[in-house]
Amino acid sequence: MRSDNVKPEELLLYAVTDRYWLGDETLYQQVEKTLKGGTTFVQLREKKLDEDNFLKEAIEIKELCRKYNVPFVINDNVDIALKMDADGVHVGQSDMEALDVRKLLGPDKIIGVSAQTVEQAVLAEKHGADYLGVGAVFQTNSKDDADFVSYDTLKAICEAVSIPVVAIGGITKDNIISLKDSGICGISVISAIFAEKDITAATKVLKERTLEMLGGKSLGSC
User: Fold this and answer.
1) Which member of 62, 109, 114, 209 is catalytic?
2) 114 a catalytic residue
3) Catalytic residue selected from 83, 102, 143, 204
């Protein structure tokens, strides 16, 4: 059942952070560049930062996203999300179950869940997920444990649930169009934004291609 916590159009271009490509920049600077380019949703993904630095960074980037009126969620770490009042959390299949996350966060926070099968998707929706991240729809180097999800499975998931679905995994400006008519509301990317030399320009192109892939249909209906 679709909630009011997140709108489908907010999931059009979903950026997942990765400090691998920082170079001389800060993550804050890179996130601001993608926001300037039109990113509509941001997930902070940190696997190696200690809790104090993670919390500090999360607070700073939440305020940045608020400035651009873009939802901000934390990957996996419910404790950090609660401490700094993030807009929500995204969890994988091996992380905390959506039902337990909802009990901790309450009814008004965004919960996203990764899914690779129709069964996982239906259960996540039943247990309170607001949206699904489905993939990997293409080969990806950003996540070593990513399972491949076929176009047919992606489409079947979109048809099986009423909550918005974003495609994830290996998506680039060149292969977005092949996701046409799958039923997704948007795409979630890491390297297609943060590995690019001009993050703002790369974001603009991705957004244009995603809108083209969606065929200009009303995002509120996906």
Assistant:
1) 114
2) yes
3) 143
Residue in the structure block whose two tokens are 């993050």: 199
143 as an active site residue: the answer is yes
Bridge partners of 188?
14, 168
Q: Quick: pLDDT tens for 132-181.
A: 999 999 987 766 666 899 999 999 999 999 999 999 999 999 999 999 99
Report the predicted TM-score, pTM, of the whole model to 2 decimal places.
0.96
**Average per-residue pLDDT in the chain?**
94
CB contact set of 18 (below 8 Å; sequence gap of 6+) = 45, 142, 190, 191, 194
Active site residue 102: no
